[in-house]
Amino acid sequence: MATSQGTWGYRDRFGDAFARTYFRRFGPGVASSVGLGTYLGDPTDDVDAGYRESIAAALSAGINHVDTAINYRCQRSERVVGEALREADVDREEVVVATKGGFLPFDGSRPADPAAYVRETFVEPGVVAPEDLAGGGHAIAPGFLDAMLDRSLSNLGVDTIDCYYVHNPETQLRVRSREAVYDRLQAAFETLERRRAAGDIGMYGVATWEAFRVPRGDDAYLSLPEVVARAERAAEAVGVDDVGLGAIQLPFNVAMADAVTVAAHSHPDGEGDLSALEYAQEIGLDAVASATLAQGDLASSLPPEVDAELAGDTPAQRAINFARSAPGVTTALVGTSSPAHVPENVAAGTFEPLGARAFDAVFE
C-alpha cells in the first residue's frame, strides 16, 4: 500500500521537476496533483496496450495517483493498472491506487444479453439480491461490496487498495428514499471499516457524478454533512478509534464548476452553506476532481476569459491547472489511454496553479 515514507520518497525523487504545490497531502502521505484516470475507451486489447504504456510512463515520470473502477471497460482498466504498476520503475509504496465499487461489472467485454449476464453472474449465485439493485446494474449492499472489493484486489494484484470509493450512490435514489440511501451508505461504510481494519483498504471515500454538486432540491442530491455523520456512526458501530472516510471524488472543470459555485452543504459550525469543495476543505476530506478535461472537450480550447488567466503551454495543460487551482482539490484526474499525451499531462504540473484570489476572480 502507499505509505508516508514511500510517497514522500517519491516526492523527493521527482519534486524538483515540478511547481511548488504539485505534490499535496493525501491519506497518510502525498500524491501528485495530476492523476491518472482510466474511464474512457473500448474494452479491447489495443486500448489496454495504450493504457498500460501510458500509466507505466506516467508513474515513472512524476505522477503517483492512479484512479480506476471495477466497471471501467469491463474490468480491463483495473487489470491494466495492476500490470502497469508491476512494469513501471516505482515501488508499490510510492503509488496511491484508488478504485470504486457500486456498478455491476461485465468481464472483459459487453455480453450479448446484459440482463441475463447480471442474473446468472450476480443474482442467482447470491452475490446481490434483486431488491438491492437500482437501474438493473447498481448496488451498494454490504455483501456485494465485499465481493467486488475482493475482485478488485485480484484484478489490481495488490494486497491493499489505498482508497476505495462507493461509486455513484445517488443512483440508488432512483428506487428508494434519500433516508434509505443514507442508511445503505452507513451499512456500506461499516463493511469498509471492517475491511480497513483488516488491512484490505487504507481508507474509503464516495465518488459521485451529481450528488454533491447539485442544489438541495435536486433528485440526485446527497448531503455531505449527513454522509460524514453516517461514516462516524459506522466507525462507532464497528468499534474503531478513527473514521475511515477520507476522500470524495466529483467532476470539476471550466464547464462544470458546480463543486465550487453551488453552496448546498451546511457549514460544520452552522454558519450558512458551503460548496462541496469548500466543505471538504473545511473538515479535512481529500477531494479528487474527475472529468478535468470534460472527456477531451477542453483539450483544444477554453473560454477566452478563463484561458487568459491560466499558466500552461497548451489548452489541455491550462484546463488541468484550472482544476488543480480549486480550493481543496488534492488531485485532478486526466485520462491516460494515449501514450502520446503523457508528456503534455505530466508537464502541466510544472506550472503553478492560480492563487486563491485569482481563482475567485474567474467567477466574478
UniProtKB/TrEMBL annotation:
PANTHER family found in the cross-reference section: D-THREO-ALDOSE 1-DEHYDROGENASE, NADP-DEPENDENT OXIDOREDUCTASE DOMAIN-CONTAINING PROTEIN
Occurrences of domain NADP-dependent oxidoreductase (ranges): 35-211
Designated name of the protein: Aldo/keto reductase
Source species of the chain: Halobellus rubicundus
A Pfam family this chain is assigned to: Aldo_ket_red
InterPro entries, alphabetized: AKR2_Oxidoreductase, NAD(P)_OxRdtase_dom_sf, NADP_OxRdtase_dom
